[in-house]
Amino acid sequence: MIVEVLGSAVLGLVLAWAALHRLAHRLPARVLVFSTGVAGALFGDFVTRSALGSGGVLAGLLGAAVVSAASLSLLLRPAGRLRRRSAPA
User: Fold this and answer.
1) DSSP codes joined into one string, 24-83
2) CA 13, 19, 22 angle in degrees (round to 5)?
3) What percent of the chain has pLDDT over 70?
4) pLDDT, tens only, 27-52
5) Is-contact 61 7, C-beta < 8 A?
6) Closest C-alpha among 57, 19, 58 to residue 38
7) What is the DSSP code (8-state) at residue 13?
8) CB atoms inside a 10 Å sphere around CB 77
9) In whole angstroms, what separates CA 88 from the centre of its chain?
């Protein structure tokens, strides 16, 4: 069980690193991104374990990856200079 928790944390770190590598201009500080990736992965593993029981490691890692990616996507800022002007009243 401890190996699965460590695997989920490493998976969260890898996903956070990939997001920072690819989308650094749209993400906040690195510490926040890494901690969000790890926390999301650990929470995803916990939720998957609670829902499915202690069946398989692969299901726990898949749940960790999904929740980690979803939580990292919440940190993204809007891209660049596309600003809409409101219609005149």
Assistant:
1) GGGS--HHHHHHHHHHHHHHHHHHHHHHH-S--HHHHHHHHHHHHHHHHHTTPPPPTT--
2) 140
3) 89
4) 999 999 999 999 999 999 999 999 98
5) yes
6) 19
7) H
8) 10
9) 40
Burial class (CB in 10 A: 0-12, 13-18, 19+), 51: exposed
The stretch 5-24 carries a mean pLDDT of 94
Residue 11's closest CA among 50, 39, 46? 39
Give the predicted TM-score (pTM) of the model: 0.83
Task: Write the Ramachandran bin of 58: left for phi over 0, alpha for psi from -120 to 50, otherwise beta.
Answer: alpha
Q: Residue 69's pLDDT is what? A: 95
Report the run of H or E that residue 77 belongs to, with start and end. Answer: none
